[in-house]
Amino acid sequence: MRERTELEDSLGAINRLELDLRDAEDLIEMGEAEGDQSIVSEAEESIRALQAEAARRQIESLLSGEADQNDTYLEIHSGAGGTESQDWARMLMRMYTRWAERRKFKVDVMDLSDGEEAGIKGATLLIKGHNAYGWLKTESGVHRLVRISPFDSNARRHTSFASIGVFPVIDDRINIEVKESDCRIDTYRSSGAGGQHVNTTDSAVRITHIPSGIVVACQQERSQHKNRATAWNMLRARLYEQELKKREEKAMADQAAKTDVGWGHQIRSYVLQPYQLVKDLRTGVTSSAPGDVLDGDLDAYMEAALAQRVYGGTVEVEDID
Q1: What pTM was computed for the model?
Q2: Which residues of 186-213 are buried (b: 16+ CB within 10 A; e: fewer)?
């Protein structure tokens, strides 16, 4: 039923585009026949809007990977730099939350570790929506911020780093087996808001997969049993994403885009001082309005990165402003 709904939506969008285009063409013919330039201008504006919609649908057609349609986990980790990087990690968490809200996606905080003074050390978000993983998978990597520090009394410019990891939620179509003997399970008390029960019992769960070194944690639920089940799902998602990455690197060994995942590879710079610029170092997409980008306006970056993954090479783009 889900596949049927998705196909109906895609085919319906194409049919609407074709119908609206024919209507616009008819309006142009009528306006030219009657000598009414306002009708022609209105129809031309409609065609430009259809062109933009067709471009968005074309990008969506690239989301044909094995797990692109699934919900996704998004992990945020602050880099070296203490409070500066932790505040930057909090800004990234807000940015992706706002992006998800723009698309009517649901966001759940699965795990959150607050910073000592401000910001967060790390967080895991569960983002639910059609093609959530397909859109966000290109965001994995290191994000760099340059700004005048609000925590520096001398108002000096600081550079901060944080990493993003994106992993698809495993559904019933995908079977990932994990041996419990390969894992270490720890329980601890949840941090932050949650009430007396949550903060006084060892309800949070952390699972370490010893062969791969992958660590996942969940403290969302009041019940340790529920947190344990969610943590196992998160671990399977991480292992599955690792396998997908191996397949992609093997199939695209000659493309530079294959290195876009990992702490050691910076993918995007957000410069707030001494000038205003956000630049993706893989695709060349730039914006001179970092406030909009940090408020969730990420589609241009994701679209260019998706196109690069499929077609390879450098994608020619203009300033998204």
Answers
A1: 0.70
A2: eeeebeeebeeebeeeebbbbbbbeeee
List per-residue pLDDT tens for the chain, 321 residues long. Answer: 777 877 888 888 889 999 999 999 998 998 888 888 888 899 999 999 898 888 777 777 777 777 888 899 999 999 877 889 999 999 999 999 999 999 999 999 988 989 888 899 999 999 999 889 999 999 999 999 999 888 877 778 888 999 999 988 876 666 677 888 888 988 887 765 554 444 556 788 999 998 888 899 888 788 888 888 888 888 888 888 887 777 666 555 544 433 333 345 689 999 998 899 999 998 999 999 999 999 999 998 998 888 887 666 444 444 444
Residue 295 to residue 102: CA distance in whole angstroms: 10
Q: Does domain 180-250 have CATH number 3.30.160.20?
A: yes
- By the 8 A CB rule, do 296 and 92 touch? no
Domain extents for the chain? Answer: 2-60, 72-171+253-311, 180-250
CATH number for the domain running over 72-171+253-311: 3.30.70.1660
